[in-house]
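job 3f2a | input accepted
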Amino acid sequence: MTDYHFRKATISEIPQIWDILQLAIVRRKEEGSEQWQDGYPNPEVVQKDIEKEAGFVLTDGETIVGYCAILINDEPEYAKIEGKWLTNEDFVVFHRVAVSEKYLGKGCAQKMIGCIEDFAIQNNIYSVKADTNFDNSAMMKVFEKLGYSFCGHVYFRGGQRKAYEKVLQKSAI
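job 3f2a | predicted structure (173 res):
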């Protein structure tokens, strides 16, 4: 029986988060991907996320099973998209999505993205944006399954990334 919770990460959890990210970095390499093979992300990046209160974990009971960073309107590269976003309103952006080796294939990435969408709505924001490497087919499948639209390309550290956006429905309350 899984008992998932999504919450802000704490500094003391960096070692567990870094274990998950390190294995994800190795996994990307084994899949032949260039993503995350340039010394990024690293423990300092995770620490900065958490200090800015942008680092979030998905837990199953006491166990950390996933990590991501969530920012609001804080992605300057997105203004330079080659293509066109669906909206130009406030947005939530997520980066550094990683799931524990033991929890792969259990829908944890989808669960985290669902929590990110809830976070956006709680902040009265109805756009979620993200990007991934052209060779991260697993993430692209998740985006398509969850109703994200491909909007164009953005660039990070010299690499082209595919940019996606989902417009969330305002609840009729």
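job 3f2a | The first strand starts at residue 4 and ends at 8.
job 3f2a | closed
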